[in-house]
Amino acid sequence: MNATDRQQIVTFRIGEDLFAADVHDVERVLRHAQPRGIPNVPDWIEGVIDYRGRVVPVIDLRKRFELADAAITPATRILVLAVEGEWVGAVVDAVLEVTTVAAADVAAPPKIFHGLAGEYLRGVVRRKEGLVVLLDVVRILSTNDRLVLERAATGGAAEDASEGATGAARE
User: Fold this and answer.
1) Domain total of the chain
2) Contact in structure between 32 and 71 (CB atoms under 8 Å)
3) N or C: which end of the chain has fewer CB within 10 A?
C-alpha cells in the first residue's frame, strides 16, 4: 500500500456517533476550557479562545449538527482545525485516536445526502467498531458562517484589549 492508498484521520465522538477529520486539517487537540462568550452570534458559536497568540472562534459541533446538548466532561476536547488559512476550534465529546485508513475503506457519501449535509461529508469510513463519518472541515462552515466567526474573533480581540487596558489602569 503506498501513501496515496491511505490517509491519516483523527477520530472523535459526538454523542454516540463517530466522526473523523483528515489529520492535516487538525492543528491541535486541546483540553476543553470555557471559551469567552461573544454577544449576538448564533448559539452554535461558543465564543473565542486565545491559542498561540491568536483569537480563535470556537464552535460546538453538537449544536452545529443539531444534536442534543450534553454536559462538558473530562473527555471533552477542542479540536483546533485549519480552515482556509485560519484556525477554528470545534468542541467534541472525545478524541479517540489518530489512525491510518486505506482508501478502499472510505466509501463515498450516500447519494441521499445532498445539499448542505452532503457538502460537508468527504465519505464514510468502514471500521470494525462501526461507521465513521469523514468530514470536510472546510465545508462545515459556509461563507456566511465564516464571516460570523471572523466578526466574533475580531470582537473578542477588541474586548480583550479594552479589558487589558482597564485592568492595567486599575493596577
Assistant:
1) 1
2) no
3) C
